[in-house]
Amino acid sequence: HDQVFVFNDIKLTHNSETAQIDHLIVHTFGFILIESKSITGEVTVNKYEEWSRSYNGKWNGMPSPIKQVELQKDLLKKFLGDHDSVLLKFTKRFWWSTMGAPLRYIKQCNN
């Protein structure tokens, strides 16, 4: 589609904050941010929303990809807000964010 743009592996620095965005889709209705993970083993999420993954039989904590993409979204919004008059004529400013990982790797999620 001629009004959809896909950007991969973006490093965004704004006001001394930096974010690495795996995938950013820009279209006439807004933006979609995707945080992707390549994970071997299993992933668990406990009731405190703390993520862990197993690798070679050992469990280790890992950053929450959901929190990562939320921080990326916040920084991108700040950046675009500071450059609003130049950059946002193209979109109607809707935001979506997601984390990509095969669901078979999510072992447990306790609320």
Q: What would your notes on this structure say?
A:
- It is built from two helices and eight strands.
- It is an alpha/beta fold and 111 residues long.
- The protein is elongated, with a radius of gyration of 16 Å.
- Residues 101-111 have low confidence and may be disordered.
Provide a quick synopsis of the model:
The protein is an alpha/beta fold. The protein is 20% helix and 48% strand. The protein is built from two helices and eight strands.
List descriptors.
four-stranded mixed sheet, elongated, alpha/beta, 111 residues, single chain
- Provide the structure class: alpha/beta
Overall pLDDT level: 80
Number of helices: 2
Order of helices and strands: EEEEEEHHEE
The residue fraction in helices comes out at 10-25%
Q: N- to C-terminal separation?
A: 40 Å
Low-confidence stretches at least 5 residues in length (pLDDT < 50)?
A: 101-111
Strand order of the largest sheet: 1-2-3-7
Number of strands: 8
Topology, element by element:
Blueprint: E1 4-14, E2 17-27, E3 30-36, E4 43-45, E5 51-55, E6 58-62, H1 65-82, H2 84-87, E7 94-100, E8 106-109
